[in-house]
Amino acid sequence: MYLDRYSSQVIDESDIEAVCAALNSGVLTQGAAVEAIEKALCEYTLAASAIAVSSATAGLHIAYLAAGLGAGDEIIVPAITFAATANAALYCGAKPVFADISFDDGLIDPRSIESLITPRTKAIAPVHYAGSLCDMKAIGCIAARHNLIVIEDAAHALGGFDAANKSAGTFGAMGVFSFHPVKPITTGEGGAVVTGDPETARKLRLLRSHGIERGGAAEQDMTALGFNYRIGDINCALGASQLKRLDSAIKRREAIASLYDQAFARNERITPLKTPQARHSRHLYPILLDRAVDKAKLCAKLRERNIGAQTHYKPVYRHSFYRSLGYQTPLPNAEAFYEAELSIPCHAALSDDEVYSVIEALNAL
Ligand SMILES: *Cc1c(COP(=O)(O)O)cnc(C)c1O
Asked: With a 6 A CB cut-off, is 45 part of the ligand 1 pocket?
């Protein structure tokens, strides 16, 4: 099912029951289901605190604010990412600076980061593209040397761990997950920020809810300019139910990925993206197409067969809005990646037959 898209939610009866229970609980926001998903995320990632929010974009915004990002500051982000990684910096009045990636794995290149550091650089936001972990050791060293704050955009990476079983999102000062329907688990719309620092957690909770300190209704005091970035209990009930099946969904995506790996091993026009670590969230199955392949034409032909595929991503500086801000210097690997990359269907709703039909179509076309 859902061959027409590169990724999809998978909803089962237990999800529906969980949502109905939340509807019947008498509390639809700031209730027990929000606390329950935060606790479950802490148990899953071993983060000390998790703050559930209305989207990963909202999470990035308050994470950058909690890091103190403001006017005159710079934050280094990869050029190959969803626009929100950079947009959240602009929300804070700060300037996103685009680093190049490495072509083989789509991940931010630590050497590129190093070359972009100025006295105004305050933070780095590595993106765990497709579910692959960035080189957090190298990035951590650079951050320590230059006194920079690391905020991981882990929107793709819930379920990704390094060889020491350390979860994506727990290497830096903060990590941000997305629960959009295409992401590893969904709450409809939603996300979460994880952190190991209690003071940062307190700031994030404050910014999530109007900057108003909790307390009796009469005792409310607004101490910061916050937002309404809360997520409702119905959404959180869905997410907590999904989280229980995350590992089995990843297993299924891995099985699909290994069918693809085998099938494309002899196709010299298709190179599957390198996926370095053992426990990968498998959010995407990106392939790199040979220069001889006309990607637009290929996608049109795939669409005729009802097979969805999408490029992740156009370099953010190429969007007209960013061009209008004066961003124009192309980064060589980001450009080449944008030309070559295609994410093909890889999600737990696909049957083996559907996977074979994608393989057959790509090898034939
Ligand atoms: C999806 C995504 C986001 C934004 O997530 P939302 O929950 O939709 O706001 C941010 N960064 C990356 C890399 C993403 O893929």
From this structure: no
CB of 341 closer than 6 A to ligand 1? no
Task: For residue 281, report the distance from its CA to the centre of ligand 1, in Å.
Answer: 15
The architecture of the domain spanning 246-364 is Alpha-Beta Complex (3.90)
Q: What is the 3-state secondary structure (H, E, C) of the chain?
A: CCCCCCCCCCCCHHHHHHHHHHHCCCCCECCHHHHHHHHHHHHHHCCCEEEEECCHHHHHHHHHHHCCCCCCCEEEEECCCCCHHHHHHHHCCCEEEEECECCCCCCECHHHHHHHCCCCEEEECCECHHHCCCCHHHHHHHHHHHCCEEEEECCCCCCCECCCCCECCCCCCEEEEECCCCCCCCCCCCEEEEECCHHHHHHHHHHHECCEECCCHHHCEECCCCCECCCEHHHHHHHHHHHHCHHHHHHHHHHHHHHHHHHHCCCCCEEECCCCCCECCCCCEEEEECCCCCHHHHHHHHHHCCCCCECCCCCHHHCHHHHHCCCCCCCHHHHHHHHHEEEECCCCCCCHHHHHHHHHHHHHC
The atom number, within ligand 1, closest to the CA of 81 reads 13
Q: State whether the beta carbon of 309 lies less than 6 angstroms from ligand 1.
A: no
Q: Which CATH number fits domain 13-243: 3.40.640.10, 3.30.460.10, 3.30.450.20, 3.60.40.10?
A: 3.40.640.10
Q: Is 270 in the pocket of ligand 1 (CB under 6 A)?
A: no
Cα(84) to ligand 1 centroid in Å equals: 6
Residue 235 CB less than 6 A away from ligand 1: no
What atom of ligand 1 comes closest to residue 191's alpha carbon? 7
Q: In a structure prediction context, what are the per-residue pLDDT tens digits for the chain, which is 365 residues long?
A: 899 999 999 999 999 999 999 999 999 999 999 999 999 999 999 999 999 999 999 999 999 999 999 999 999 999 999 999 999 999 999 999 999 999 999 999 999 999 999 999 999 999 999 999 999 999 999 999 999 999 999 999 999 999 999 999 999 999 999 999 999 999 999 999 999 999 999 999 999 999 998 766 678 899 999 999 999 999 999 999 999 999 999 999 999 999 999 999 989 999 999 887 778 999 999 999 999 999 999 999 999 999 999 999 999 999 999 999 999 889 999 999 999 999 999 999 999 999 999 999 999 98
